[in-house]
Description:
Elements: H1 6-18, H2 22-32, H3 35-52, H4 57-64, H5 68-80, H6 84-99
Helix pairs in contact: 3-5
Amino acid sequence: MQRMDKKALKKLYSAIISLETEAECAAFFDDICTVQEIEALAQRLEVAVLLLEGKSYIDINKKTGASTATICRVSKCLNYGEGGYKTAIERIKKAENEGK
C-alpha cells in the first residue's frame, strides 16, 4: 500500500488541531470516519490508559473487548512510539483534574 503524502497528513493534523470544541471534534470525526473506526480509536485510547495504570492484558480485554493483538500494539506504541498516547492522556487527566 502506498504511503500517504506528507502534505495530506499535515492537512489532516491541521484540521484536527483547528477544532475548538468537543462538538466540533465529534462532528468532524463522524464525517471523516466510520462508526467502527471511531470505536477502534476510542478503544485504543482506553487500552493505553489502562496499560499506563498497570492493568493486565486479561483485565484490559475484559473491560474493553480489545484483542490481545490490539493491546500488544498499543503497548509497543507506549514503550517505543513517539509519545503521542502519553501526551494526550496526560492532558486529558490534567483537564479532568482542573474541571473538578
